[in-house]
Design goal:
Oligomer: heterodimer
Shape of chain A: globular
Structural class of chain A: alpha/beta
Radius of gyration of chain B: 22 Å
Largest interface: A-B, 104 and 76 residues
Helix content of chain A: 10-25%
Distance between the termini of chain A: 40 Å
Shape of chain B: elongated
Largest sheet of chain A: 7 strands, mixed
CATH topology of one domain in chain A: FAD/NAD(P)-binding domain
Structural class of chain B: mainly alpha
Radius of gyration of chain A: 22 Å
Number of strands of chain A: 17
Order of helices and strands of chain A: EHEHEEHHHHEHEEEEHEEHEHHEEEHEEH
CATH superfamily of one domain in chain A: FAD/NAD(P)-binding domain
CATH class of one domain in chain A: Alpha Beta
Distance between the termini of chain B: 21 Å
C-alpha cells in the first residue's frame, strides 16, 4: 500500500529535502517528519509495493526490477588512477523506494568498540588512511537498540561472547535454525569456536501490518512480499507517511544541489519521470543516496564556490572507498539440507572479529556465516562444483543431487581505507540523462586480500570438521564490483581529512547533511547496514537539535 | 562481503535486437510432419510460437532435450522449455534473436560436417547430437565459476541455448515466462513447489535440541 501523503509544491520551501529512501533516508524521513518537520523524499527509483515482489528470477535479477540499470546508468572500472577506466558493470544497489534494504540478506551485526577506534589501537597501517571515528560505540549504542526495536531485528542477546555491551535484549527471538546452521554450529564447536544465532533484520514474530518470515526461499536479491524483511519500505517509510508531513516522491533523479550567494543550500534539482527538470526548495538538504551516488551528486554539483565538487574542500569526496573483504566456500553434504527454504543465514560466529596483526601478519578481522542464498536458476548456472558437467545427463544428475545438499560458508571482513579507492565521475561515459557516469577505481589493500585468504582457510577447516562430501572455494582475487559502498564522504573532526562532522553536517555547507554508507570511517566486519541505520537515527537527533536551535541558516 | 550479489547475473542484459517476430504457427499441427511428432502428441500445453517457425522450434527443442535430457525424470521437453525460449526471444531476450537466427544454420552446417548422412540436427541420434553439441561448446567444464552480474555473457549460440534451457527448466512456474511447466523442473531438483515453509527444513535440523551457550572459554580462542 502507498499511504496518503501530503503533496508539496516544488516552490514550497519545505524544512528538509532528503535524497534517497533506503536504509538511512527512510529512517531520517521517519524521524524528521515525526519531529514535526515538513519533509520531501526524492527517490530516483519507482514506488513498488508487496504486490510487485514476485519470485521470477529473470524479472528481478536479470532485468533489474529492483536495482540500478546498466543500460540507463552505465559505469566504468579501473584499478588505479593511472589506468583508463573501461566500461563494465561496477556496482549494484537498490533503485526503488526502500533502496538496497529491500533486497539485502539482512545480516544485522552491530559494529564493535574496535571498529570506532582501530587507528588508536593498532596504529597506522602502511598504504591506508585508517582513522578513528569522532564517535564511539557507546555514542551509537542507544541507536543500535532503536534500530532493533523500531525497525525489527531478531536475535539472541548475550549469545556471542564477543558481542559489545547492549542496553536491551532483542525485541524478538532468532529465526529458526536451518540445516546449514546446525552443520555450522556443530563443526564450529568441535573447533572450539563460538557460533550463535544470526541477528537478522527479518521478523520471527509478526508486527502490525507485517508478517513473520514465511521462509519462502526468495530472500537475497528479492524484496519481501509479506513485509517480513525489515526494509525501509516495510518500516520507516510507512511510519514517515503516517505522520502526514512526509511526501515520498519516486522517479525523481536528483543531479544537482544548488547554493545561494551566501553558500547555503537552497534545494535539489532533479529529473522527474518525464525527464523534465524540477527544483524542490528546502531549508536544508540531507543526502542519503548511498556511498556511490552521494559522492557523485556532490561532484556533479561543482560550482564557482566549490570547483572540485560541493562540500569537497578536503578533496575526500568519493575517496577511501571500502567494499569489505571476504570469500565463499561451498560444501555438499550427504543428506538433504533443503536450505533453499527460508532466509539466507541462521548461524554466525565472531571469534575472528579482532585478529592480532603480530600473530597473523596483517591487519583486520571478520566473521563467518553459514548460508544458502541461491535461487534455482542461479544455482544451476553458478553453484555446481568446478569441473562439473555443464549440460547433459550427468549435469542433470549433479544438479538434482546437489541442489538440496549444498550450503556455503561466507567469510566477511574488513577493508582498509585507501585514498585512491574511489567513486568519481567518468570523463567520457554519460548516463541516459547525459550526466557523467560513475567510475569505480579499486585495488584491495594487500592486507584485505590476506585476510580474505585467512578467512577462507577457517571456512575450509570448518567444512572439513563438518564432514562435507565435497568442498571448493574460488581463489582470492582483487575486487572489481561493488555492493557495500562505504567511506566515500567520511565523518571526522578535521575538515582537511573528512567531509562531514559528527553531526553529519558537511564541514563546508551548514545546511547540507550526508548520511549513508559514505559516512563510515571504517568498514566494520562486512555487515554495514545496521550501523548505517543506527547512524541515521542518531543523525536525525543531531539535525533536529541544530534545526531547533536555528543553526541551519547561514 | 555480500558480493554474492555480484555473481547473480546469469545472462546478458537485454540489447537491442531484431524487433519483428518471425512467424506464429500452431505447434501440434505443424509438428506432425516433423521427426518429433510423437513427442508433440504428449505435449501438455501446446501453444502458439511467437518467434520460431515450427521447423526452427523442432531443432531448438532437440538441442534443449540434450542439455536437460529426459531420463528417469522429466527433462526440458516435458517442462515445455521450447515455449519459454520462444517467449523469451520476443520479450526479455529480444537481443538474442540474432544469435538464434544465425546459430541455427551454423548448427546444421556442423551436422552435415560431422554426420553427412543426417539431414538435420533433430534427425540425428542422441549420441550424434551430443557429439555435435560438444563441438559447439567452447567452454571447458568448470571454467565458468559463479556467474557474475558484471560479466558480459558470452554468447555463442550453444551457450545461449544452454542458459535459456536451464532458465526455462527452473524459472518460477507461476511467472509469465511459460517455462517450468507444472513445476517439473523444480520437482527434478528437489525443490518443493510451495512458497511458504515451516521448520524443520532438512535432515540436519530435524532433531536440533535448541541453541546452548558454549562453555565460557571465549578468551582462549581469540587469535
Amino acid at each position: 500500500m502507498m499511504l496518503d501523503q501530503p503533496k508539496y509544491k516544488t516552490t514550497d520551501e519545505v524544512d528538509f529535502v532528503i535524497i534517497g529512501s533506503g536504509a538511512a533516508g527512510g529512517i531520517l524521513a521517519k524521524e524528521l517528519s515525526g519531529n514535526g518537520f515538513r519533509v520531501v523524499v526524492l527517490e530516483q527509483g519507482p514506488y513498488l509495493t508487496e504486490k510487485d515482489f514476485v519470485h521470477d528470477e529473470i524479472k528481478v535479477i536479470n532485468q533489474d526490477l529492483l536495482t540500478n540499470h546498466p543500460e540507463l546508468q552505465p559505469t566504468t572500472f579501473r584499478k588505479t588512477p593511472q589506468d583508463k577506466a573501461k566500461p563494465q558493470r561496477a556496482l549494484v544497489y537498490g533503485r526503488l523506494v526502500g533502496g538496497t534494504s529491500t533486497h539485502f540478506t539482512a545480516n544485522f551485526w552491530r559494529f564493535h568498540e574496535i571498529d570506532f577506534m582501530e587507528r588508536s589501537k593498532v596504529g597506522p597501517v602502511a598504504g591506508a588512511t585508517l582513522a578513528d571515528w569522532p564517535i564511539t560505540y557507546a555514542d551509537l549504542e542507544p541507536y543500535y537498540t532503536k534500530v532493533e526495536w523500531e525497525i525489527g531485528v531478531s536475535g539472541l542477546a548475550g549469545a556471542s561472547p564477543f558481542d559489545p555491551p547492549r542496553s536491551k535484549p532483542y525485541p524478538m527471538p532468532p529465526l529458526p535454525v536451518k540445516s546449514s546452521g546446525v552443520i555450522f554450529e556443530r563443526a564450529a564447536r568441535k573447533l572450539g569456536w563460538h557460533p550463535f544465532p544470526a541477528p537478522m533484520a527479518i521478523l520471527s514474530e509478526p508486527r502490525p501490518g507485517r508478517s513473520a518470515c514465511i521462509n519462502c526461499g526468495f530472500c537475497l536479491s528479492f524484496a519481501c512480499e509479506v513485509g517480513a524483511k525489515s526494509s525501509s519500505l516495510a518500516t520507516a517509510i510507512r511510519m514517515a507517511e503516517k505522520t502526514g508531513r512526509c511526501e515520498i516522491r519516486p522517479n525523481s533523479y536528483v543531479h544537482r544541489i544548488e547554493l545561494d550567494a551566501t553558500g547555503r543550500a537552497t534545494g535539489a534539482v532533479y529529473f522527474d519521470a518525464r525527464r523534465n527538470v524540477q527544483r524542490q526548495k528546502a531549508k536544508a538538504v540531507v543526502v542519503c543516496a548511498n556511498g556511490a551516488e552521494t559522492p557523485r551528486l556532490l561532484l556533479l554539483s561543482a560550482s564557482k564556490q566549490f570547483p572540485d565538487g560541493l562540500a569537497n574542500s578536503s578533496g575526500y569526496v568519493g575517496k577511501n572507498l571500502m567494499l569489505n573483504s571476504g570469500g565463499v566456500t561451498t560444501a555438499v553434504f550427504e543428506e538433504p539440507l533443503n536450505d533453499y527454504k527460508g532466509f539466507a543465514v541462521s548461524r554466525v560466529l565472531h571469534d575472528f572479529y579482532e585478529l592480532d596483526p603480530d600473530k597473523v601478519g596483517f591487519h583486520g578481522g571478520g566473521g563467518l556465516d553459514a548460508r544458502f542464498d541461491m535461487t534455482p536458476i542461479g544455482f544451476a548456472l553458478g553453484s555446481l562444483p568446478p569441473g562439473a558437467p555443464r549440460w547433459g545427463k550427468s549435469f542433470k544428475e549433479v544438479l538434482s543431487h546437489n541442489f538440496t545438499r549444498t550450503c556455503e560458508i561466507f567469510g566477511h571482513g574488513t577493508s582498509l581505507p585507501v585514498e585512491n579507492n574511489s567513486f568519481s565521475l567518468d570523463p567520457d561515459l554519460k548516463d541516459a540523462w547525459s550526466l557523467p557516469a560513475l567510475r569505480l577505481t579499486y585495488k584491495d589493500h594487500p592486507d584485505d586480500l590476506k585476510l580474505s585468504a585467512w578467512l577462507n582457510a577457517r571456512s575450509a577447516e570448518l567444512v572439513e570438521a563438518a564432514g562435507a562430501k565435497k568442498m571448493w572455494a574460488p581463489p582470492v582475487q582483487e575486487q572489481q564490483f561493488a555492493v557495500h559502498l562505504l567511506g566515500t564522504c567520511r565523518m571526522g573532526n578535521d575538515p582537511k581529512t573528512s567531509v562531514i562532522n559528527s553531526d553529519h553536517q558537511t564541514h563546508d555547507v551548514r545546511n547540507l547533511f550526508l548520511c549513508d554508507g559514505s559516512s563510515l570511517v571504517t568498514s566494520g566486519r562486512g555487515q554495514p547496514t545496521m550501523t548505517i541505520e543506527a547512524l541515521a537515527f542518531r543523525a536525525a537527533d543531531r539535525i533536529t537539535a541544530l534545526a531547533k536551535r536555528g543553526d541551519l541558516s547561514a | 562481503m555480500d558480493s554474492q550479489l555480484s555473481r547473480r547475473g546469469f545472462l546478458s542484459q537485454g540489447l537491442t535486437g531484431i524487433s519483428a517476430a518471425w512467424i506464429s504457427a500452431h505447434w501440434p499441427a505443424m509438428l506432425s510432419a516433423a521427426s518429433h511428432a510423437h513427442r508433440a502428441a504428449q505435449s501438455a500445453a501446446p501453444g502458439k510460437f511467437e518467434f520460431f517457425s515450427p521447423e526452427q522450434a523442432v531443432e531448438i527443442e532437440a538441442i534443449s532435450a540434450r542439455i536437460i535430457p529426459t531420463t528417469d525424470t522429466p527433462g526440458a521437453h516435458e517442462a515445455g522449455v521450447i515455449f519459454f525460449i520462444d517467449r523469451a526471444l520476443v520479450t526479455f531476450a529480444k537481443g538474442d534473436q540474432k544469435i538464434y537466427a544465425e546459430g541455427l544454420p551454423e548448427l546444421q552446417a556442423k551436422v552435415r560436417e560431422l554426420s553427412p548422412a543426417v539431414a538435420k540436427f533433430s534427425a540425428a541420434t542422441p549420441e550424434q547430437q551430443d557429439q555435435i553439441l560438444q563441438s559447439l561448446d567452447e567452454q571447458l567444464p568448470g571454467a565458468a565459476g559463479r556467474p557474475s552480474r558484471r560479466r558480459i555473457a558470452a554468447q555463442s549460440f550453444f551457450e545461449t541455448t544452454r542458459v535459456h534451457t536451464i532458465m526455462g527448466f527452473l524459472i518460477d512456474p507461476d511467472s509469465d515466462k511459460r517455462g517450468n511447466r507444472d513445476g517439473l523442473g523444480w520437482k527434478v531438483i528437489g525443490r518443493e513447489p510451495e512458497h511458504m515453509f515451516q521448520p524443520p527444513f532438512g535432515y540436519y535440523d530435524k532433531d536440533y535440541p535448541g541453541w546452548q551457550p558454549n562453555p565460557a572459554d571465549a578468551e582462549k580462542t581469540k587469535s
